[in-house]
Design brief:
alpha/beta, Undecaprenyl pyrophosphate synthetase, six-stranded parallel β-sheet, globular
């Protein structure tokens, strides 16, 4: 059912519901996060098989630092273990790893292993998997404004130079296209401070599936739904069909 000629170039996913899935099973929240890692693996392989160019995963927000310390510490350990385990798979599937977010807040050991994986996969030419880690859109926009002010103070920019292209060039996603499709799992209907600038014209797809239950088939359903929509970008249907 998927039209390979009309695939979204960039899919972004808010991976929600790990904790609720674990609670349904009578397990601790960390079991949900571990199962969520398996889902990441499966969806990455599916995206690679289809030929998706960019897959951005909302992994850990700046707000998540406010969770109980034991959960945050366990998540950081899980992140390191996953990076070490999955790097050979990324290499075998020609996947390039990138990140967006304030990674300076990460524990030093976690950060170094993460950067090492980014470097190791840097020459891969297939899917670019972007991990949004210690990320929030308001943080990103605030950093962009701070950079713009500094450019102006240094005499390298004038007020009249500010336009959409300039703002986009100051975002952490400047090297990639905006998402064509945003998927959010777990039945929530929020953007949750994720890619607010970049999602201006993205198609939004919400599913009741909790992230650990989100299968390849569910991923394909989202893409089929996306392909049924008419993307007008402010134009009329008649203009698009010309």
């Amino acid at each position: 059912m998927i039209d390979k000629d009309r695939l979204p170039r960039h899919i972004a996913i808010i991976m929600d519901g790990n904790g609720r899935w674990a609670k349904k099973q009578g397990l601790a929240r960390m079991f949900g996060h571990k199962q969520g890692v398996e889902t990441v693996h499966n969806i990455t392989v599916a995206a690679t098989r289809l030929g998706i160019e960019y897959l951005t995963l909302y992994t850990f927000s700046t707000e998540n630092w406010n969770r109980p310390k034991e959960e945050v510490d366990a998540l950081m350990t899980l992140l390191v273990d996953t990076i070490v385990k999955e790097t050979p798979t990324l290499m075998n599937n020609n996947v390039r790893l990138q990140t967006i977010g304030d990674i300076e807040r990460l524990p030093e050991g976690t950060k170094q292993k993460f950067l090492g994986c980014i470097e190791q996969t840097g020459s891969n030419t297939g899917l670019t998997m972007v991990i949004a880690l210690s990320y929030s859109a308001r943080w990103e926009i605030t950093e962009a404004v701070r950079t713009a002010v500094k450019l102006a103070q240094d005499g390298r920019m004038r007020a009249e130079d500010v336009n959409e292209q300039l703002v986009s060039s100051l975002m952490t996603t400047k090297a990639m296209p905006d998402p064509d499709l945003l998927i959010r799992t777990s039945g929530e209907y929020r953007i949750s401070n994720f890619l607010l600038w970049q999602l201006a014209y993205s198609e939004l797809y919400f599913t009741d599936c909790l992230w650990p239950e989100f299968t390849e088939e569910e991923f394909y359903k989202a893409i089929v739904d996306y392909q049924k929509r008419e993307r007008r970008f402010g134009k009329t249907s008649e203009q698009i069909r010309k």
